[in-house]
Amino acid sequence: MNKKQKRMLTRIVITAIMAVLLNVICWHPVLNAVLSLLTYLLIGYDILRKAGRGILAGRIFSESFLMAAATLGTVALAVYSRSGEYLEAIAVMLFFQIGELFESYAVGKSRRSISQLMDIRPDYARIETDGVLTQVDPEEVAVGSILVVQPGERIPIDGVVIEGSASLNTGALTGESLPRDVAVGDDVISGCINLTGVLKLRTTKSFGESTVSKILDLVENASSRKSKSENFIAKFARVYTPAVCCSALVLALLPPVVRWLFLELPPDFATWVYRALTFLVISCPCALVISIPLSFFAGIGGASRAGVLIKGSNYLETLAKVKTVVFDKTGTLTKGVFEVIGIYPEQMQPQQLLELAACVEAVSSHPIAKSILSAYGQEVDRSRVAELQEISGYGMVAKVDGKAVAVGSSKLMEKIGVDRKVCADMAAAVHIAVDGTYAGYIRISDSLKPTAHETIEGLKKAGIRKTVMLTGDADGAAQTVGAALGLDEVHSQLLPADKVAAVERLLEGRGNNDRLAFVGDGINDAPVLARADIGIAMGAMGSDAAIEAADVVLMDDDPVKLLQGIRISRKCISIVYQNIIFALAVKFACLALGAAGIANMWLAIFADVGVMVLAVLNAIRALK
Predict the structure, then answer these.
(1) In a 3-state reduction of DSSP, which class is residue 377?
(2) Which member of 328, 533, 551, 557 is catalytic?
(3) Does the domain made of 339-445 have the CATH classification 3.40.1110.10?
(4) Has 328 been annotated as catalytic?
(5) What residue segments make up the domains of the chain, in order of their start?
(6) What is the DSSP string of 270-300?
(7) Given Cys at both, which of 244, 324, 463, 505 links 283, Cβ 3.0 to 4.6 Å?
């Protein structure tokens, strides 16, 4: 507990002791009144102060106002009737404060749980300059700096290993317990903990652009994006609270007036004012106002623990309604780690064809380009290459030793008017043309991710009605992957604009309450990620543009995390609806009983504090 919670607990204990003493000891009426009022002020002064500030600020109808009006009214009735029955006012405020303390502790616990989970911000970075190590703030480290990370330390900034090897604990980022082994040439992301050897790495990003900063920003700002359920509760409270205050006023005045003017009975104002005060206590909407945001907060935290970063509660609510899932292929359902499995030249040696392709692809970061460079195995002399141009979705063209070389898909060959050979199987084909003449092709193989089949099966069992794959690859390779995974639809040879058009057609054919999710990882996926109802990006290998455009980020590039994210979101939304239905049902039932005079102030306490405690307990389940 923090200091504020400890002070509140002390006030609660003292008030409870005083309430017992006031109830069991026969005090002088004046002393009893004084002690009762002091006890009431001890437990309720902060609520009265909040209510007063709210009135002065123009925010009259708050839960503090309802509590203050109900309890002060009860005190006024005790003074007016000279009954000495101040205990009800003390008890209402006491149990309300117990509920507030419990809610504060529950929210604090959920925040601490998420804070501990996301405690990945590095405190320092060891930068090496001329063989000397200096400990600096990570924000001061420039791109291209050399860092040294010792065993037990956290990697402060994204980079590439240039010396050493080690095992990394990635649990805080991906939710996975198995360590990841890295060696020279491997990319490492900030936030991971070095478990074994000393690593020397060259930073590839500034601290503000590194993975750890983006994760912290996503989690910290998630609550600023409210779901429809949260917005509904806020609007509901703004209308509901004034309505019940007016209803309580009518209940206090109308029945006595009717009794006096029309029935010629004593007005009995005390009875009806008491019922109106009970009505006010029951009507407090704190169970909804507190538990609904807490449910979403806990759901986002629980998803983060599983390696699924959701950028806001509105996206969590949308994810729960997804019925169509559209996938990119390379790097999403397949590993995106290609290798050359065949070279088929027309009028030159295989090594010559591979060399031309490597020269053109030397500056590309595409996985296929990397596989060609890996197969070539030599340093490319870039002075031989001129007029390099990338044609998005097609390939690359350049001048190599003065010859016009085009390297890319079959669509590139069609675009430049070159006849090419057909290669329709699981392997991708990279076609090469020299000076407008077809020179041959290189076959590149990709493989499915280990959990791809499990993901598709799980999605179908979870009620996903349609699974679709959109890819720029050749039709043969795409259809092979689609058949292996049991996808409902496969669309191949698509440019980025074609993917957007395909998603728009799917959006037109969905149900009104159904949502479409797109899962991708490449920079060319950014437009379609933004166009889908909810965009989901692969976080470890995914491009910055894709992660920026996405609403959900899967931290370890494992498609099965999508299935976990959908399950978590549905559980969270189920808890939200449970709390809404439970709270409203109990509230309205008790309001009717209170208006009829059947419910007393003690039932009012249960209807307010009890429902809030039960709703908060239920909300915390979303963390698990």
Answers:
(1) coil
(2) 328
(3) yes
(4) yes
(5) 339-445
(6) HHHHHHHHHHHHHH--HHHHHHHHHHHHHHH
(7) 244
